[in-house]
Amino acid sequence: MKLVYLAASAAVWSVCAFTKQPEAPKGVKLAAVETVSKSQKAVADSKDDAVKRGEYLVTIMGCADCHAPKKMTPKGPAPDMDRFLSGHNSTQPLGTFDKSILKTGEWVVFNGQSTAFAGPWGMSFAANLTPDETGIGNWSFEQFNTAMRKGKFKGIENSRPLMPPMPWFNYVNMADGDMRAIFAYLKSIKPVSNVVPSYIPPAP
Ligand code: HEC
Fold first, then answer.
1. For ligand 1, is residue 181 a contact (CB within 6 Å)?
2. Taking CA 186 as the corner, what is the angle to CA 184 and CA 190, rounded to the nearest 5 degrees?
3. Most buried among 1, 17, 85, 154, using CB within 10 Å?
4. What is the mean pLDDT of residues 11-33?
5. What span, in angstroms and rounded, lies between the C-alpha atoms of 102 and 151?
């Protein structure tokens, strides 16, 4: 009887010794927590990387040349960083010019801010690309992708075509990762409330 008991307790002890390693579960738990926070960090890092890549692309692709109002500096006009990428400033009166020069289709006119453009297509205004609701704040990536690759207003498939001088046809073959990076960057910049005037078709 005593022997059986001893054998049983030895068996129990050896099972415990096998399973109850106090360090192991702790170690496993820690490793799991570490893996979760590492992967969260990886997601955050790759988001940061996308935003940085997007900033780089937006800079070298010159989106601000048209999409940002300008301030005069000793080196010439520079993007107004308070209204960066917020499109044609609708609170500023549009200057006048002799519209007869448009008639022949030989001339294109830019306003001084390089945000409003008149030519044979009519008059167009650079869009607000900031994450405000008057800009691309409510846009999905799919909308952005459609606007950029198919030249569709608001990124809606059956909307009107985007007018010059938006050079969307240059972006048709952009790598998907770059398109997403630009979108991530635009969603990260300061939102500016600015309802850009509607496109005006050419006078008949
Ligand atoms: C040479 C001037 C110019 C450049 C450079 C330019 N855009 Fe545009 N963009 C415009 C104009 C003008 C419009 C408005 C066209 C219209 O209303 O038909 C526009 C429209 C857009 C739209 C559509 C907005 C809407 O509400 O449908 C998006 C998105 C856009 N641009 C993104 C960009 C990005 C991103 C870049 C840089 C990679 C860029 N643009 C470079 C002039 C430009």
1. no
2. 125
3. 85
4. 50
5. 24
Cβ pair 126, 132 in contact under 8 A: no
Across-strand partners of 109?
118
The rounded Å distance from CA 48 to ligand 1 centre is 24
CA–CA dist 116, 173 (Å, integer):
27
Q: Is 147 in the pocket of ligand 1 (CB under 6 A)?
A: yes
Structure tokens at 69: 């109002």
Q: Is the pLDDT of residue 28 over 60?
A: no
CA–centroid distance, residue 57 to ligand 1 (Å): 14
pTM of the model: 0.83
Residue 171 alpha carbon, nearest atom of ligand 1: 38
Pocket-testing residue among 56, 58, 67, 163, ligand 1, by greatest number of atoms within 8 A of Cβ = 67
Task: Please name the residue whose Cα sits nearest to atom 43 of ligand 1.
Answer: 166
Residue 156's SS3 state is: coil
Whether the ω angle into residue 202 lies within 30 degrees of 0, i.e. cis, is no
User: Which conformational region is residue 14 in: left (phi greater than 0), alpha (psi within -120 to 50 degrees), or beta?
Assistant: alpha
Q: Whose C-alpha lies nearest to ligand 1, atom 21?
A: 127
